[in-house]
Design brief:
globular
Length: 71
Amino acid sequence: TLEMQGYAVSAVSSGEEAVEALRQRPVSLLILDSLLNGQAVGWKLCQYVKQTYPAVRVIFASTLHNREKAL
């Protein structure tokens, strides 16, 4: 796991929680699902992060199996 490799890991379940967490503690990497708490806000959150914290790298990982639903 990332924690076993010495990285600090935080988890949130909504876009609002993610924004607040980023304000409180900057990160260098954000692993993001396109769906947060059942809502398709991942892309909007990514745009916000890239505009507000341009140095943060973003990786999208999703459990969606249907590409149509993902878009």
